[in-house]
Amino acid sequence: MSNNSVLTPSINEANSLLPNSEVSNEVAYTKIKVATFNLFNYLAPPDAFYDFDRIYSVQQWQKKQQWITTYLTTHQPDVIGFQEVFSAESLQALVKEAGYQYFAVIDLPTVIDDFIYRDPVVALASKFPIKAISSVAVDTELALQLGLTADFSFSRKVLRATIELPHIGDSDCYVVHFKSKRASWQAQTDKLTSLEGNVLQQFKAQVAGGWASSVQRGSEATLLMMKMLERRAKKGNAMILMGDFNNPLSDGILAHLVTPNLLFNNDQTQQKLVKFYALRDAWDLYKDNQSADAKVLLTRAATHYFGQGSSVLDYILLSSEFDAADQSSYFEVSDYTNTDKHLINPSFDIDGESTDHAVVSIALTLRQ
Question: 7-366: which CATH number, 3.90.930.12, 1.10.443.10, 3.40.50.620, 3.60.10.10?
Answer without folding.
Answer: 3.60.10.10
